[in-house]
Amino acid sequence: MRELLRETADLAADFLESLPDRPVFPRIEVDDLRARLGGPLPDGPTDPAEVVRELAAAGDAGAVAIPSGRYFGFVIGGAVPAALAADWLTSTWDQNAGLYVAGPAAAVVEEVAGAWLADLLRIPRARSFAFVTGTQMAHATAMAAARNHVLAERGWDVEEKGLTGAPRIRVFAGDKVHSTLPRALRLIGLGTGSVVRVAVDGQGRMRGDALRDALATTTGPAIVCAQAGEVNTGSFDPFDEIADAAEEAGAWLHVDGAFGLWAAASTRFAHLTAGAERADSWSTDGHKWLNVPYDSGIVFCARPDAHRRAMSVHADYLVHADEGGPRDQMDWTPEFSRRARGFAVYAAMRSLGRSGIAALVERCCDHATRFAAGIGEVPGVEVLNDVVLNQVLFRFPSDDDTQARLAAVQASGVAWMSGSVWGGRQAIRISVSNWQTTADDIDRTVAAFAAA
Ligand SMILES: Cc1ncc(COP(=O)(O)O)c(C=O)c1O
Q: What is the pTM of this model?
């Protein structure tokens, strides 16, 4: 076993050391990958070292250099060393982090990291939390708690009765709501038909006046979903205005802070999240800006009773902790058995510390500003967003031009980023979320666009 793990560590280090030179997107076709990885299920066993060696060779050929400082796609971070190493330990220990009794250290580390996160992200009202797979499941958890609460206020026990016959809930969200929010509503049975789209401004921020008008159309149970960090522009909703309107309407307020909530970790950027602390629930990710390996999301809730009622589970064969005793994670998560995700988050936070996390956020934002300045000099480029955070959105004069330049840069292997649509036209978006990105990475990427 020790030999196998040593050899695997070397293979992992080889991958990391190849990052400066390998194309950011692999130059391989899907059929080639199928041929390398496919074939019939072997009838008999294969030596584990051989399996790992072959997997590493074939997998490496089809791996995107996501940990590279020149990967700017979607909103994806890398993995800081302590988090990567802690993630290896997580697999090695193989705790089932559903119950305290199946992994006491896993349970306590989540307690500690949950409190650290609420402090760092400036959400003191967050009184319960759960480590989940990502913001998608954080939303599903928060929406289930919200649904529980707003229906309980109207005398409806949704946990027992379900939704048939329940008062209709309306969910108010900005027109640029992230697609994971309506999906969460589908998952919890509210459906996308429950969403009332609220007008946004040119940066994708929900308009407070439009929210007020929309809320005035209902007296029924309501949930308001605000956003810290729009996925294209990085813009922040006006939380205080939104919180005032939600409060007056008696609505539950949720904040999608998948990456934007991390602005709160920096004194330079914390003003962007002002008012977000007034929410009833928040979603964020560890695998984006904290640079924890996939998968890692966190949900927080200001109303632990609603959160727990929506998630808790009991079975005679389980060993549940006593009330007021240790924390059983499965009372707060949608999963039953689960990976001990807290270790990697804990290790990332402990290794970076408060100052290191602030520096990471600020560095990424400064690189985004540098990129916007550089790309703005490339003939024909129009930068479409106010670069307030780590996102840059831009385009070339025509849609064809934009797509062709994006494809050329992707194919060059210098960097990778994705396209988007903004105002009905093709655009390119850059998200600087990786702890390793340097000014040189930014300049090389700008140069790649100029050359394209
Ligand atoms: C604003 C926002 N919300 C939600 C998500 C979904 O996050 P996850 O992929 O962790 O579920 C993203 C992902 O980029 C996002 O940017």
A: 0.98
